[in-house]
Probable prefoldin subunit 4
Amino acid sequence: MQQGDGTEAQVTWEDQQNINRFGRLNNRFHELTDEIRLAKEANENLEDAGNELILCDEDVVRFQIGEVFAHMPMDDVEARLEQMKEDAAKKLERLEEEKESILAQMAELKKILYGKFKDAINLEED
């Protein structure tokens, strides 16, 4: 591998493992970005459903379970909706934490790899 100053840097097994690990982390980072976007949309949908439920004046409402709508008492639907909101918020928080952890690991690997290979390696996204 050719460095900017004209000397060759040998890629050791450990270097290759770090490069591979960076690639896996980068892939997971992009997956998490998509999952976070979907989780935020789900949170918004649950919030909208809660708002619609507040406006509803019926004692029995239709509640979607999988692909089927079931008629359920309003109180049960409110309780289920609140539980779903809590679960969705926890999931979003967990995904955000994992994303931050991955970013920290990627930053550490960048420091190591750029320290050794300088301009001969590009870990930035275009």
Summary: The beta strands are 60-65, 68-73.
